[in-house]
Known about the structure:
The protein is an alpha/beta fold and 403 residues long. It is built from 13 helices and ten strands.
Amino acid sequence: xxxxxxxxDKGLRRExxxxxEALAVLATSDxxxxxxxxxxxxxxxxxxxxxxxxxxxxxxxxxxxxxDCSYCSQRLGSTTGIxxxxxxxxxxxxxxxxxxxxxxxxxxxxxxxxxxxxxxDVDRVSETIKAIKDQNEGVEVCACLxxxxxxxxxxxxxxxxxxxxxxxNTSEATYGDITTTHTYADRVDTVSKAHAAxxxxxxxxxxxxxxxxxxxVDVVFSLRELDPDSVPVNFLIPVEGTPxxxxxxxxxxxxxxxxxxxxxxxxxxxVRIAGGREVHLRTMQPxxxxxxxxxxxxxxxxxxxxxxxxxLEMIAxxxxxxxxxxxxxxxxxRATAGAGGCGSxxxxGCGSxxxxxxxxxxxxxxxxxxCGTAAAAAPAGEPRTDLVAxxxxxxxxxLAPNA
Length: 403
């Protein structure tokens, strides 16, 4: 297929595809999905070999969020029955992080629900970062706390944070359809603040509400322009009790095409499969490793994930290897350039980095999606409500975490 050969050549040169080429990837048929995966896999292996970076989420504060993000189980007025608790103490968060690190994770993602942190909240998170780093030499820490005020990103960096996550989620044109309590511009501003403070910026998207192909391409091109170091790709987890809880619009093949498009547009970025991979990719998760070079280990913020042991077995069985603590995630040109990203500069590609796909929303939530009127909606997937389970272990409970 001439399209795929062209995209591979561009990916190896870190050259931006055209919008038409990106849209064409999403428009390929299920018959061609293995060809698409094979082509994007060449780009992934060129920049990242067969390494898979593991990240681990710690939900510092669950529920109790004043924002109204339609996809989120922690939203204002949620009736989802999720765990609800206020801030974990630094030693509690450090113990939770240790479980993920013992399972092979090299980055800990500290997430808290809410519109954004107060200065006291930044103090709390700073103490938690110190506790984790004091006990785990070389660990990377990403914070995901919602919208940042002036000076807060600098304080987090001084406390030892390596990165900050705040997702764009969807295209600017449809953003107002999923959230009314903050704006797309607010999100862009927070990612810019993280960048300016010298933190590794992480920002990604959410797919799964029947958004149009144009919406998906819009947000990925916006991300490339915004220049984050890593791009987490969330797939909506339809949690009962949320406005989007009955939306099942993804198939495994659709998910693979989305990941391939992101890889072609951002060839040397750390593309992370975030929330929803177990629910929507299911038995095709190993194929997605040919596209993404990073995943979350174990559970998500409010829902359960695949068993950590199964994650590790899947990586090994697919012929990949867990990225070691001493290995640098970024390709050499990115690592030596410092915080760089998704190729808004002519010479840059999509920057790889270790971050957290922590947050999809106000303080980060595990899956989400666009709610806009879709011009070309994906075919509906078969509902698999049996794969959606509220997290009842780990942070905020007395039970051992899944790691």
